[in-house]
Amino acid sequence: MEGxxxxxxxxxFRKDIVxxxxxxxxxxxxxxxxxxxxxxxxxxxxxxxxxRKFSNHGSVTLDGITIHDxxxxxxxxYLTSEVDVYPDRFKIKDLFSWIADIYKEFDYDLxxxxxxxxxxxxxxxxxxxxxxxxxxxxxxxxxCVPADYIFLDEPILGLDAKNRDVxxxxxxxxxxxxxxxxxxxxxxxxxxxxxxxDVIVIKDSKVLINDxxxxxxxxxxxxxxxxxxxxxxxEDLNIxxxxxxxxxxxxxxFGDLNDKPIPDTVTISNIDLQKLFVNLTDRE
Length: 284
Hints:
By secondary structure, the chain is of the alpha/beta class. 32% of the residues lie in helices and 30% in strands. The protein is built from 10 helices and 14 strands. A 6-stranded mixed β-sheet has the order 6-7-8-3-9-10, sandwiched between helices. Strand 4 and strand 5 (65-66) form a beta hairpin. Helix 4 packs antiparallel against helix 5 (131-144). The chain is globular, with a radius of gyration of 21 Å.
């Protein structure tokens, strides 16, 4: 199968199991949201895929070929994360030139355009940047390198609302101009919900969900009404959470509804990705 295949991956840090025998595929030319609470293993997973960390067991292949220690395959993967891998002493313009020497098809035109839109001073030294502009430089590089699989670990860290808009618009435009796979890990889920085509949720060191955003949202419901009637209607359903205000209750459902008649006092609506994620990852 084309794409990245993660198979039976296990990662342990001393006695802690961070990734527990996980298997799934990352397909070409899709935009994924990689979601999970703090410590769920998202960053570790990305670093293993990019061959910056090693697993205790399992394999990662790209188009059926092992990634580990394979420069040709690794050149098709790019990871940007909170960890700085660029020299602090470099001016930004020199940093871009250095990366362009490494990636021969680096999109310099887009790089200059984004630098202008972000109001980035290219004479600044990388080590002197604020958290927001540190993220901006790494985001620009990620959008301009000619890799087929771009992994973005908290790419909007420190960005204000305006610059987050610039980033999202640039990502959508560059994806439209040259479709490739983006995997975005972020805690601001509501901002990427309309961008991502697929969702991967990691919980308790395992993959809880790996499906299209459309399928997930079609199976996510809020059932609201008098508490007794809501509980009666949802008693056989997959309840992932609930909220109450006085005598009114909402049960959150993930999965199929039943064929029971819906009471006149009960309403059913779909819930958004943020609320689904919170309830799924809160549930024991």
